[in-house]
Automatic annotation (TrEMBL):
<dbReference type="InterPro" id="IPR009057">
    <property type="entry name" value="Homeodomain-like_sf"/>
</dbReference>
<feature type="domain" description="Integrase catalytic">
    <location>
        <begin position="140"/>
        <end position="318"/>
    </location>
</feature>
<protein>
    <submittedName>
        <fullName>Integrase core domain protein</fullName>
    </submittedName>
</protein>
<dbReference type="InterPro" id="IPR012337">
    <property type="entry name" value="RNaseH-like_sf"/>
</dbReference>
<dbReference type="InterPro" id="IPR001584">
    <property type="entry name" value="Integrase_cat-core"/>
</dbReference>
<dbReference type="Pfam" id="PF00665">
    <property type="entry name" value="rve"/>
</dbReference>
<dbReference type="InterPro" id="IPR036397">
    <property type="entry name" value="RNaseH_sf"/>
</dbReference>
<dbReference type="Pfam" id="PF09299">
    <property type="entry name" value="Mu-transpos_C"/>
</dbReference>
<dbReference type="InterPro" id="IPR015378">
    <property type="entry name" value="Transposase-like_Mu_C"/>
</dbReference>
Length: 420
C-alpha cells in the first residue's frame, strides 16, 4: 500500500471520529449508529467497524495527530493483487449483465465461475475497480429534508464558497475577479475574504491560511462540491488541523444560505460603490474591500443576531477560539502534491520546470510536495530532500567527482600507447 492510499484511509477514519472529536454528538448513540453501518472504505471496500476500533482511532489521533490514523504497511507488500488486463474487460461485461447484483454477491459469483482467484484478487480490488467505472449498484434515496440552523458558538462551523466578482479594466484589457470568502455560522463574522484572479486552489490556500491566522480554527468547514473544495490538499489540511470537512449535496445551494446571503450583501452594498469609482487594479480592489468589510459589514447591526454586530458577537466568545500556535505550520499542510519518476540524471519535470535532487533518488518514483517558494521530496509523510531548479549555466562549471588514476596506471597507459 503506497503513501497516497494510506492517507486516503486516514482521511476516512478522521471522518468517522470528527464528530466525537468536536463533541457535537452523544458518544454512546453515535458509536452505536456508526458501528451498525457498512462503510465504503478506500482500498478495503465495504466494512463494518466496532465501537472499540473507532475509539482507538480517536485515541491515536489525539496522541499522534493525522499520522496516527494511517494504517501500517502490508506484510505482503510487493505481491500482485490486481486484476490482469485481460480480466478487466471480461469482469466489466459480466457486471453489466448482473448490474442489480450486490457487490459482495458479485464477487462470490466471480470466484464460483472461476473468473478470479480469491488469494490473488481481493474483494476490495474488485470493489475499487467497479467503483472507478461507475458500476456499483446505488440505492435511491429520498430528497433530504432541509431545516434552518444556526450554531450558538463561534468557530463551531464556517461556510466557504467562491463568487464571481467585478470585472476590472486594466491596460485596455478586461480582467475577471472572484471573491473567495469564509463566514462564521454563529456570529456572521467573515474570518477573511479576498478577490483572486483565478478559480484555482492557490486562491483558496491563500485565503484560508489568512482566515485561520486571523480568527482561529473552526471545528467544521461546510462547502459545496466544487473542484478546489474536493481537493486532497484541503482534506489533508482540515484533517491535520482537526477540522471536519462537510460538503453539501449536489445541486443543493440552499444548504449554504449564509455564505450566499453574504455574497448578495457584497453586491448590493460594496459593488455598487465600485460602479461610481471603479478600481484600477486587483490590489486596489482588495484594499477598498477590506476597509469596507471592517468598517461597514462587521460593525453593522445584523437582523438575525437580534440587532448585534458580527464583530460584537465574535468578541463576546473570544476566549473559546482555538488559535493557530505556529502559523509557519500552515505552509507545510497546504503544500500541493505530485508523483514524479526521477530520471537517471537525478532530475524531474514539474510545471514546465526542470528540478534536480540527490543522486540517491535516480530512477525512483517519488512524492513531491511544493508551493511557489520550494519543492521537497517526501517519504512516509516527511520531507527528506529539497529539489533545486536546474540551472544549466551553473552546471557547466560544476566540478565532477572522477576516480583518481594512480601513477602506475598512468605509466601503463603511456607504455601501451608507445607499443602501438
Amino acid at each position: 500500500m503506497d503513501e497516497g492510499m494510506r492517507e486516503k484511509i486516514a482521511l476516512f477514519r478522521f471522518g468517522l471520529i470528527a464528530p466525537l472529536l468536536n463533541e457535537q454528538v452523544d458518544r454512546t448513540t453515535y458509536l452505536a449508529e456508526v458501528s451498525a453501518k457498512k462503510h465504503d472504505v478506500p482500498c478495503y471496500g465495504e466494512k463494518r467497524y466496532a465501537a472499540k476500533t473507532i475509539l482507538e482511532w480517536l485515541l491515536f489521533y489525539r496522541r499522534k495527530g493525522f499520522d496516527g490514523l494511517k494504517p501500517g504497511t502490508r506484510s505482503d507488500r510487493g505481491q500482485s493483487r490486481k486484476l490482469m488486463p485481460d480480466q478487466q474487460d471480461h469482469v466489466l461485461a459480466l457486471r453489466k449483465q448482473h448490474a442489480e447484483m450486490p457487490i459482495t454477491v458479485f464477487y462470490d459469483y466471480l470466484i464460483t465461475k472461476g473468473e478470479i482467484l480469491p488469494g490473488r484478487v481481493s474483494y476490495s480490488t474488485v470493489h475499487r475497480f467497479l467503483n472507478l467505472h461507475g458500476l456499483l449498484h446505488g440505492e435511491t434515496t429520498k430528497a433530504p429534508e432541509r431545516k434552518r440552523f444556526a450554531h450558538d458558538k463561534v468557530n463551531m462551523l464556517w461556510q466557504t464558497d467562491m463568487s464571481e466578482g467585478p470585472r476590472l479594466r486594466i491596460g485596455g484589457k478586461v480582467i475577471r475577479t472572484y471573491l473567495l470568502a469564509f463566514i462564521d455560522d454563529c456570529s456572521r463574522l467573515v474570518p477573511f475574504a479576498q478577490f483572486v484572479p483565478t478559480e484555482k486552489f492557490d486562491g483558496l490556500r491563500l485565503v484560508m491560511k489568512e482566515a485561520l491566522i486571523r480568527r482561529g480554527i473552526p471545528k467544521m468547514l461546510y462547502t459545496d462540491n466544487g473542484k478546489i473544495f474536493r481537493s486532497d490538499i484541503l482534506q489533508f489540511a482540515c484533517a491535520s488541523l482537526g477540522i471536519q470537512l462537510l460538503h453539501t449535496r449536489s445541486f443543493g445551494p440552499q444548504s449554504k444560505g449564509k455564505i450566499e446571503r453574504y455574497f448578495l450583501t457584497c453586491k448590493t452594498r460594496f459593488y455598487t460603490m465600485l460602479e461610481a469609482e471603479p478600481a484600477s487594479s486587483i490590489e486596489e480592489l482588495n484594499e477598498r474591500f477590506w476597509r469596507w468589510l471592517e468598517a461597514d459589514y462587521h460593525r453593522k447591526p445584523h437582523a438575525s443576531l437580534e440587532g448585534k454586530m458580527p464583530i460584537e458577537v465574535y468578541l463576546s466568545q473570544i476566549e473559546q477560539v482555538r488559535t493557530v500556535s505556529e502559523p509557519a505550520m500552515l505552509d507545510t499542510i497546504f503544500l500541493r502534491r505530485a508523483k514524479r519518476t526521477v530520471k537517471h540524471d537525478a532530475t524531474f519535470s514539474l510545471e514546465n520546470r526542470l528540478y534536480e535532487v540527490p543522486e540517491t533518488f535516480a530512477g525512483q518514483k517519488v512524492e513531491i510536495r511544493y508551493d511557489e517558494r520550494s519543492v521537497h521530496v517526501y517519504e512516509e509523510g516527511k520531507a527528506v530532500a529539497e529539489a533545486k531548479v536546474v540551472r544549466f549555466a551553473d552546471n557547466a562549471h560544476v566540478k565532477r567527482d572522477r576516480p583518481a588514476l594512480s601513477f602506475k596506471a598512468l605509466q601503463e597507459s603511456a607504455g601501451g600507447a608507445a607499443d602501438v
